[in-house]
Every structure is written in structure tokens, then in C-alpha cells.
Design brief:
This protein is an alpha+beta fold. It contains 18 helices and 25 strands.
């Protein structure tokens, strides 16, 4: 493969998120964490550690709200958990028995302080704070209905729409959990959420179960709710169980009550990309260990796309587990061929050419790859820009051959449930065949996980794979633009000026 061919990769403008100055991998929307303690504790500190463990789920903004006997104290801002919650900020929180936190990537709505969560609401029957993971597929229609009835929105996120509907139902419902249950009759799409009232914390998962949610308990009796089980371990909580699709779990001072009136309304559709990329490898989601699932992906790749080679390496961090599985099944030695610079945060800005920036984040281990036939394993290819740069890194380090293997099928469709895939225009697999993609990124061969083999990752077919097959569990939203709420406001203003 000549360098001239590797440089043919087209560069297009689009809405796909950029990180550290170059095109990043696919991103998921956010992570949520909440707690209910029997006695006042350093609730903010505990949520801080929970959010730190969920940092991989969102790096744009974060927030914590602590409930001290009905008095809510909050802090939210743009940035990583460690940047936003420095020592003086954490020490300013009171002790409390209930708290909720959130870390965010914005797949709907812009990156600004107004969209930071948890969202707090004061209403006629009390106060509420809500943190949400996922996207509503009917958010635009619900928001339009609410605006026509006089609602005034302060954010451009789906979460405020959920808060409005729950608040409206609360005016006539006997309890906040009943209000949430009634609201769920109107919500479509993905929502794993934690809702905090003055006396309770409530966890709920949409009837499809698109996004994960679980809870556990610490030795001091504190219940903790989190997007992933890795966050429970980070705060010393023992995993109890996953919250079921459609389930509402109510934690009050002396009781834990499960409401299941929405369970079984829809088929289970957990996002399969949670196992491929989003979740931390040490998490267990709906009874399936993420690390084991990624190992199986590598084994499937080795079986479906074998090739003679000298070493198997993974792209840090998301390709490492699948690379190990490929190595074990094929018998080809596993090696560390790429090193990730762990000290580059989201605020890194490179002054030079954008094509050089992968070299700042990743470095090839020449002793491992020089003169060798290399199998390079990664989780996905979006536009192909980053993949092409990584292949070039290995070429420059002396790799003799580079055979790329991807532990997911090709992305061919947008996602409407909280994954940052908003347009076919940004997906290389919608433009080129697999051999053409291999040539464009400079690889000697390219193989994707076969679509029909996805079930091998979990041992069942209870998952959503819309981004890979274009089959959606819900109706496609009427307005699919990521910035649809900002655009609607601009369009309305322009119409009024005519």
C-alpha cells in the first residue's frame, strides 16, 4: 500500500464531534449517579467518585445536586469531573441524605452551561432534580406541544422536556413516582434517569431498556444508583441488580419499592454498542460482562476474518479487549503496539497541522511492530480519518503489513437514542465498499464484525443495532437535526421578522 493511496481519504465537513482537534470516535450521551443514605453523609464527595468512574460516558459537562432535608444545593459547569469539582467546591456542599449527579456528552442540544445537568425544577408541589441518559425520539413533538401550552424552555436538551411532563403530571398525581409513571406513557425513545424529590430518589429505565441502569448498597446502608456497575464499586457499594426495562424503583428513607407497570410493554433493546465501546470493560450490564463480550467479539473476528500475521495489537483503550480475544482464538501473539498519552485532557489544543495530532495522542512501539505483519483491532470506523492516521503511524514505525479488524459492523444509519451518529453523510461505510475503505485508510486488508454475529457478544438477540442495520424500534423522529431546538428558535425568529 503506497502512501499516495493512504492520503486519498476525503475530508468532509459535518456535525460529528471533534475531540482534541481531530475527529474522535463515536460518543454516548452521559452517565448518571444517585444515592439515598440513612443518615447525613458527605453526599457530594460520594457522587464525585461515582461520576469519576463514569467519566468515559461524558466529558463536556457535569453537575451534582445534594438534598439536605429538602434544601437543594448544586454546582454545575462545563468540563471534566476533576476540573469542575475542585476541593473548595466539594467542601462547600452540606452533608445530605440524597444526591444526584450527571456527566454529559451532548447528542441533542449545544454545549453550554444551560444544558448542564441535573436539571432543577421548583413547582407547586415541591422541588425536583433530574439527571437523564439517552435521547427521546419524540422530543421535538413533545416540546412543540408544551410550548403551545405556554411552557418556556431554558435549555435545548431532552431532559427539560421530561422534567416538564413529570411536573405537569405531578399536579394531579398522588406522588412523584405516580407522576413519573404517567409521564412514561408519553415518552418514547431512550431514557435511563434518576429523579430526586425532597424525600425520595427514583430510578427509571425506558420500556426498551436502551441505556443501562443498576443499583447497589454500601455497608453503611447507603443505596447507590449508577449507569454502570463500575461506579458502584468505585464508591464501595455492592451490586444488587440491574433495573429492568420499564421499571421504576423508589428509594425512600426506610423502603425500596419496585413499580413494574411498564415492564414488558416493549421488547428489550439495550444498545449493543454499550458492549462494543461505551461501557467500561469492568462493568456488567444486564448480566453480561463487558470485558467478556469484547473478548468474544475478537474471537468472532478471528474466525470470520483470519489472516496470517506475526502480532495482534489493539487501539487503546477500546480495541484492547477484542485484540486479546483475536489473539487467543487465532494463536497469533498479542502485543502492545500502540501507547496512549494518558495526560492529554479534553482541553488539549494543538497549534500545528490537524493530521499530526494523532501522533500526540498515540505512539507506536517500534520494537513490537517493525518488520512484522500486524493485525490492528479497533472498535469502529466512523469517517476513517483517525483510522488512516493510526495505520500511517504503524507504517512509519516499520510495520510490514497492516490488517485492520473492527469489532463492530459498519455504521450505516443514524442513531436516535443517545449515540452521536446523526447523519449518513459522515459515515464512510455509506460511501464506499469495504475494499475501498481499506485502500483509503492505507490498510492491506479490512474486516468488520459480521452483522449476523452480533448476538455472539451477549448470547441473545435482545439488543438495538439500528446504527448497523437501519431497523428502528420506534418511529423515526420528525426532526433529526442535533441542533434542532436551536434551529427551530432561529427559524421562528426569522419568520416573525417577515
Amino acid at each position: 500500500m503506497t502512501q499516495q493511496k493512504a492520503n486519498k481519504l476525503p475530508v468532509r465537513d459535518g456535525n460529528m464531534r471533534k475531540e482534541n482537534g481531530y475527529m474522535s470516535n463515536i460518543h454516548e450521551e452521559c452517565g448518571v449517579f444517585g444515592l439515598m443514605a440513612p443518615e447525613p453523609i458527605d453526599a457530594a464527595g460520594l457522587v464525585y467518585y461515582g461520576l469519576y468512574a463514569l467519566q468515559h460516558r461524558g466529558q463536556e459537562s457535569c453537575g451534582i445536586v445534594v438534598n439536605d432535608d429538602g434544601l437543594f444545593t448544586s454546582h454545575k459547569d462545563l468540563g471534566l469531573v476533576g476540573e469542575v469539582f475542585q476541593k473548595e467546591i466539594l467542601s462547600s456542599f452540606p452533608t445530605g441524605t440524597i444526591a444526584v449527579g450527571h456527566t454529559r456528552y451532548g447528542t441533542t442540544g449545544g454545549t453550554n452551561r444551560n444544558n448542564c445537568q441535573p436539571i432543577e425544577v421548583n413547582h407547586q408541589k415541591g422541588r425536583m432534580a433530574i439527571a437523564h441518559n439517552g435521547n427521546l425520539s419524540n422530543a421535538a413533538d413533545l416540546r412543540s406541544e408544551l410550548e403551545l401550552s405556554g411552557a418556556i424552555f431554558h435549555t435545548t436538551s431532552d431532559t427539560e422536556t421530561i422534567a416538564y411532563i413529570v411536573t405537569r403530571e405531578r399536579l394531579n398525581a398522588p406522588s412523584i413516582e405516580e407522576a413519573l409513571s404517567r409521564a412514561m406513557n408519553k415518552l418514547e425513545g431512550a431514557y435511563s434517569l434518576i429523579l430526586m424529590s425532597p424525600q425520595k430518589i427514583i430510578a427509571a429505565r425506558d420500556p426498551f431498556g436502551f441505556r443501562p441502569l443498576c443499583y447497589g448498597q454500601r455497608e453503611d446502608g447507603t443505596y447507590c444508583i449508577a449507569s454502570e456497575s463500575c461506579a458502584l464499586r468505585a464508591v464501595g457499594a455492592k451490586f444488587i441488580r440491574d433495573i429492568e426495562p420499564g421499571e421504576i424503583v423508589v428509594f425512600s428513607k426506610n423502603t425500596v419499592i419496585s413499580r413494574r407497570e411498564h415492564c414488558g410493554e416493549k421488547p428489550r433493546k439495550l444498545c449493543i454498542f454499550e458492549y462494543i465501546y461505551f461501557a467500561r470493560p469492568d462493568s456488567v450490564i444486564d448480566g453480561v460482562a463487558v470485558h467478556a463480550s469484547r473478548n468474544r467479539a475478537g474471537e468472532i473476528l478471528a474466525k470470520s476474518h483470519p489472516v496470517e500475521a506475526d502480532i495482534v495489537i489493539g487501539v487503546p483503550d477500546s480495541g484492547l479487549d477484542a485484540a486479546l480475544g483475536y489473539s487467543r482464538f487465532s494463536g497469533i501473539p498479542y502485543g502492545i503496539g500502540l501507547i496512549k498519552n494518558k495526560y492529554i485532557g479534553r482541553t488539549f489544543i494543538a497549534p500545528g497541522n490537524r493530521t499530526d495530532q494523532v501522533r500526540i495522542k498515540l505512539s507506536a512501539v517500534e520494537e513490537e511492530v517493525r518488520g512484522k505483519r500486524v493485525i490492528l483491532v479497533d472498535d469502529s470506523i466512523v469517517r476513517g480519518t483517525t483510522s488512516g492516521q493510526i495505520v500511517k503511524l504503524l507504517r512509519d514505525a516499520g510495520a510490514k503489513e497492516i490488517h485492520m479488524r473492527i469489532s463492530s459492523p459498519p455504521f450505516v444509519s443514524p442513531c436516535y437514542y443517545g449515540t452521536d451518529i446523526d447523519s449518513k453523510d459522515n459515515l464512510i461505510a455509506c460511501k464506499y465498499t469495504i475494499p475501498e475503505i481499506a485502500e483509503l485508510i492505507g490498510a492491506d486488508s479490512l474486516g468488520f464484525l459480521p452483522l449476523e454475529e452480533l448476538k455472539g457478544l451477549t448470547g441473545n438477540t435482545e439488543y438495538c443495532s439500528s446504527c448497523f442495520d437501519g431497523v428502528y424500534p420506534t418511529e423515526i423522529p420528525s426532526d433529526v437535526r442535533k441542533d434542532r431546538f436551536e434551529r427551530r428558535l432561529s427559524e421562528a425568529l426569522a419568520e416573525n421578522e417577515k
